[in-house]
Write a structure and sequence with these properties.
The radius of gyration is 16 Å and the shape is globular. The protein is an alpha+beta fold. The protein folds into two domains: 52 residues; 42 residues, no CATH class. The N and C termini lie far apart (45 Å). The protein contains four helices and two strands; from the N terminus they run αααββα. It has a two-stranded antiparallel sheet with strand order 1-2.
Length: 95
């Protein structure tokens, strides 16, 4: 995508109307009786209207250990996925 197209997309996506519509769509998804993984998948789609991304990783975190216990991701290359795991777990730093 050319820089001018990206700028146009961001300007449109960040308009007050687009933000309100995105929040409305995310709130509607949150009212559904979904499991954690499906909820994260469905929230990611409208969220990318405001935060354009080629890939994402949306994790669930254990509140006691702060370790990622599950993640939903899309568009990650194997190298990017490995780097994300390394960034999260490079050293033994949890209790």
């Amino acid at each position: 995508m050319s820089p001018s197209m990206l700028t146009v997309g961001l300007d449109t996506a960040s308009s007050p109307v687009a933000r309100r519509e995105t929040v409305r769509d995310i709130e509607a998804v949150c009212r559904l009786d979904l499991g954690s993984r499906e909820l994260r998948r469905r929230v990611a789609k409208p969220l990318t209207r405001l935060v354009p991304a080629d890939s994402y990783r949306f994790g669930a975190i254990d509140p006691t250990t702060l370790l990622i216990t599950d993640d939903v991701s899309a568009g990650l290359t194997p190298e990017a996925a490995a780097a994300a795991v390394h960034d999260e777990y490079p050293v033994d730093d949890v209790l």
